[in-house]
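[retry 2/3] Hydroxymethylglutaryl-coenzyme A synthase C-terminal domain-containing protein: previous attempt timed out, resubmitting with same input.
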Amino acid sequence: MTDLIRCLDSMKVVPCQEYVDSLQLLEKKHNAGSYVPAGSLDNIWPGGFYLENIDEKYRRKYGRLPKA
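[retry 2/3] Hydroxymethylglutaryl-coenzyme A synthase C-terminal domain-containing protein: success.
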């Protein structure tokens, strides 16, 4: 339980509008082929996975940040 509390405490708090903008981008790119997300990886925990790209056949490629 303490690990969960520590992880939650380390999360970055963002303004509501930034969250809404992110959701709108997800809606816009839903089912879009040949997509490469643009954005910072700074908010992903060490060892976390992230989407690198989606090709024209909707295959996803994921990357992983190194563990700290």
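[retry 2/3] Hydroxymethylglutaryl-coenzyme A synthase C-terminal domain-containing protein: Strands lie at 49-54, 60-64.
[retry 2/3] clearing retry counter.
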